[in-house]
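User: Can you help me understand a structure? I only have the sequence.
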Amino acid sequence: MSHYLIRDIHTLVTMVDGEPDLRGAHLLIEDGRISEIIPADQSDRLNTRLKQENLEIIDGSHCVVYPGFINTHHHLYQTLTRNIPRVQNAKLFDWLIGLYEVWRELREEAVEVSTQVGVGELLLYGCTTTTDHFYVFPNKASAELLDVEIETARKMGVRFHPTRGSMSRGKSEGGLPPDDLVQKPEAILADCERVIDKYHDPAPHSMCRIILAPCSPFSVTTELLEETIQVARRRGVRCHTHLCETLDEEKYCLEVYGKRPLDYMAEVGWIGDDVWFAHGIYFNEDEIRRLADTRTGIAHCPSSNLRLGSGIAPIPAMRQAGVPVGLAVDGSASNDSSNLARELQMALLVHRVGTSVESMPPRRVLEMATTGGAAILGQPEIGRIKPGAAADLAMFRLDRIDYAGAMADPAHALLFCGAGPRADLTMVNGRILVRHGQLVDLDEQALFHRANEIAERMLKATEDKLGVKYR
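Assistant: Let's start by predicting it. Here is the structure, written out as tokens:
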């Protein structure tokens, strides 16, 4: 494994509690770990390190370096169904109903390519760890689509927390998805055990940990939720699902279960520090306190929530109460992007309306994107830059016109200026995956054309089958 010295870093943002940002420091990376931080005034230590053999020197003099960003909710398969006119102006339930028809066409090649697109885009914008909520298993496709995604992500080098998602309640049983997109509970649970056995690595610095993730209260049965959390706790893995994303979901839970969404999930055991929910827009004050008391986490997806008109999650109130909160892009058919740097900007801005400008300072946003995500995923060796931590880094150039006049606070220029820029360098586990703003191991143009060919086939098959135009 290569060793690196990033020297003369303009601004090093460690995200270690109580530590200030460092100017002019040098960062040594060895064997996939942060080995040493050398302050700017310790030239003797620097000179000693410069004499090492097999050490690549990287100039950081015009750069800000952060811990790699952590994405706590995604649907990578959706990168092939972005920007479709038929659902551009639809709210969540209508959007899902429209896209379920296209997702029926998912096959192995589509999963491989959509993963390459989504993970590639995440890496380009400084994300080094991502989860993914994969819950669509068409009856006509291989049952092992998740394996395709995991193996593709492994080759790309991202730190990955994939979920074995599920849907068991089809339209004929009062659910939202078509019947040929749902699976039998026994098949789901057996496959959960299989992927845990095959892929889950609980060790520190793990590159792959499995999570169990039924899709939502309106697409799985009560029994599957109960059995899934039991399997997860017996096997020592975390659980994840969507919750309180829309008022339609709240209405559904009240009508079908006679309870608000959080009360229902608590009744089936889905609350605690090994659980986190995506969205959480419609929690009330009592529910926020309950989340904080149980250390149940939230993945905040600001752009997706705005794009679908779902609402704005009460993140300032959650943070004040002590709820663990991470940042997320959500699926690339509701966000239409996997740019986590843009999510930092969105999270900064959206919570300043309707509350106060002080309700979302920039450092709090960085916390959600780094240490907050690490806490939710239970992986404390990521999200901070300190000796012994994982060498997961995002480095952005500051010597661009976007940041001219912004050097009074270079650590937060990324949030206030520009438009979610590409990282100059992204490193995961001590391996450089983005260099000079380009993916090291993937041809972007070739991937673009391959992805669009598959997307076109999926849309055409859907239109021919339904006799309905999607474009």
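Now, to help you interpret it: Residues 305 and 311 are 6 Å apart (CA to CA). The first strand starts at residue 3 and ends at 9. Let me know which part you'd like to focus on.
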